[in-house]
């Protein structure tokens, strides 16, 4: 359909920009995964991996210039909802591929899922409904 084709053209143009925000890259990686554009998906995921925060056997993404976490006893830091959301989009981009994710992608995806699950509140939800 021409609307979808034009939208993908717009996204491809935006993906070629030098400076894209990490949140934008996460959304575009998932959009290209859904559209079956493997080369674009892989390129964005490669770029995102360079910006990943790898800590305590998990992987996530955060906003550039974010204040460092405060390490207090008996306090479990929960990331802002936008960081949970963009990390979830990267996870979806890793898992949404045809014919199926590679073993390497599944291993990396499990590190992302570990971080996301650590952000759940005691009721099983997250900091917001995003």
UniProtKB/TrEMBL annotation:
<dbReference type="InterPro" id="IPR008930">
    <property type="entry name" value="Terpenoid_cyclase/PrenylTrfase"/>
</dbReference>
<feature type="domain" description="Alpha-macroglobulin-like TED">
    <location>
        <begin position="2"/>
        <end position="130"/>
    </location>
</feature>
<dbReference type="Pfam" id="PF07678">
    <property type="entry name" value="TED_complement"/>
</dbReference>
<protein>
    <submittedName>
        <fullName>PZP protein</fullName>
    </submittedName>
</protein>
<dbReference type="InterPro" id="IPR011626">
    <property type="entry name" value="Alpha-macroglobulin_TED"/>
</dbReference>
<dbReference type="GO" id="GO:0005615">
    <property type="term" value="C:extracellular space"/>
</dbReference>
<dbReference type="InterPro" id="IPR050473">
    <property type="entry name" value="A2M/Complement_sys"/>
</dbReference>
């Amino acid at each position: 359909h021409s609307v979808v084709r034009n939208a993908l053209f717009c996204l491809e143009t935006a993906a070629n920009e030098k400076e894209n925000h990490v949140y934008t890259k996460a959304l575009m990686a998932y959009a290209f995964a859904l559209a079956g554009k493997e080369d674009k998906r892989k390129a964005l995921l490669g770029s995102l991996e360079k910006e990943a925060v790898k800590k305590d056997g998990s992987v996530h993404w955060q906003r550039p210039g974010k204040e460092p976490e405060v390490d207090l006893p008996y306090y479990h830091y929960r990331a802002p909802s936008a960081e949970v959301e963009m990390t979830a989009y990267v996870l979806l981009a890793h898992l949404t591929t045809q014919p199926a994710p590679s073993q390497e992608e599944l291993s990396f995806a499990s590190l992302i899922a570990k971080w996301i699950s650590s952000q759940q509140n005691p009721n099983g939800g997250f900091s917001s409904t995003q």
